Amino acid sequence: MRIHALSTDFASQDPSNPSKPALSSTTKNRYQVGDALRDGAATRIAILLTLTLTMLLAIAVLATNADAAPTGTSGTSGVGAVAPWVDLRSVTPTGPYRLVSKGKAGSVTWRLERATGDKGTTCWRMVTKPKSISAKGNAPGNARCYQPVADDADIVDVPLVVAANAERSKVGFVAIVVPKGTRSVKVGQIGGKFTTISGGKSLSGPIVFVGKKSPLWVDMTLPGKHRLACQGGVLIDKYDLKDPILTDNSVGAAWFCDEL
After folding, report:
1. Residue 92 CB: number of other CB atoms within 10 A?
2. What is the pLDDT of residue 180?
3. Nearest to residue 136, comparing CAs of 235, 248, 254?
4. How far apart are CA 43 and CA 24, in angstroms?
5. Distance (Å, rounded) from C-alpha 172 to C-alpha 237?
6. Taking a C-beta distance cutoff of 8 angstroms, is the pair 100, 206 a contact?
7. Helix ranges (DSSP H) in the chain
8. 241 closest CA partner among 177, 199, 159, 186
9. Where does residue 23 rank: exposed (0-12), middle (13-18), buried (19+ CB within 10 A)?
10. Residue 193 and residue 176: Cα distance in Å, rounded?
C-alpha cells in the first residue's frame, strides 16, 4: 500500500506568467534528479541490450560449431603438433566380421562378431536367432566402431558397450568390454532383476548377456574392490530399473559409466 503525505514545500506563482505556478527549489531538484535517473536508466538499458545481443551471438556461434563435423583433435602428436580429428559418426568396416564369442540363452542363440574398420577402429555387431534389433550404431547394420582405448584413459572410459538392443527388439542383450582384471559382473534388467555373469574370477574379453528383458545396468568389481557401473539412458541408480518411465526412455539410448 502506498501512503501519500502532504509536502511542507508549497509552490508560488511565476511573476512572468501569473497563471503558471513557480517551481520551488525542492521541486526543481526533484525534476533534476528525475531527469538524471531517466538518463541513467536509459544507459543501463542500452548496456543490457548490448550484453544480450553479445550472448545471443556467442550461443549461435557455439551451436554452429557443435553441429559442424570435427576438424581437430583432443590429443597431440609430437611436440606442439596437433593430430587431426577422427570423425566416428560414420565408419565403414574394411574387413570381414569374425566370431568373438557365441552362446545360447533359452531359445535364443547369439554371436558377437568383430571386424576391422576404417579410421583405426574396431567394429562390433551382435547377431541373434530369432533376429534382434540393435540400438543405433555408427556403421552399417547398426554396428558400433571404436578407436582403441588410450593407455592413460580414466577408468570410467575403459568399459565399452559394443552392442545393445533397441527399444523395438524382442530380444534383450548387451555386450561390454570390461577393464582387465575385472573380478565380477552383474547385469540388471528392466524390473530390477540382477544376474551374476562371473563371481571371483578374473574376466577378459567382452561380456555378453542375453535375456527376455532389456539390460540397462552393468555392475563391475575391479581389483582392490573398486566398483564401476555402466547404465543406459537416463538411469542413475539401480532402483531406477523398476521405474517404467525411466526405463522406457533408456532402452536404445547411449550408455555411460561411473565409479561407485
Report:
1. 15
2. 87
3. 254
4. 29
5. 20
6. yes
7. 25-67, 244-248
8. 186
9. middle
10. 18
Q: Can you tell me the mean pLDDT for 203-218?
A: 92
DSSP SS3 for 113: strand
**Which grid coordinates belong to 231?**
547404465
Q: Which three cell numbers stand for residue 46?
A: 542500452
- Beta strands at 184-189 and 215-221: parallel, antiparallel or unpaired: antiparallel
Q: What is the reported pTM?
A: 0.68
Amino acid 176 reads: I
CA distance 137 to 124: 9
Least-confidence region, from 69-83, 144-158, 242-256 = 69-83
Task: Report the side by side order of strands in the sheet with 160-164.
Answer: 160-164, 172-177, 206-211
Contact indicator for 230, 241 with CB cutoff of 8 Å? no
pLDDT digits (tens, 9 = 90+) for 34-62: 444 345 555 556 565 665 655 555 444 33
Count of beta carbons in the 10 Å neighbourhood of residue 189: 20
For the chain, percent of residues with pLDDT exceeding 70: 66
Work out the end-to-end distance of the chain between its first and last CA atoms, rounded to an integer number of angstroms.
56
Query: In this structure, what DSSP letter does residue 237 have?
Result: S
Q: How many residues does the chain have?
A: 260
Q: What are phi and psi of 230, to 5 degrees?
A: -110, 130
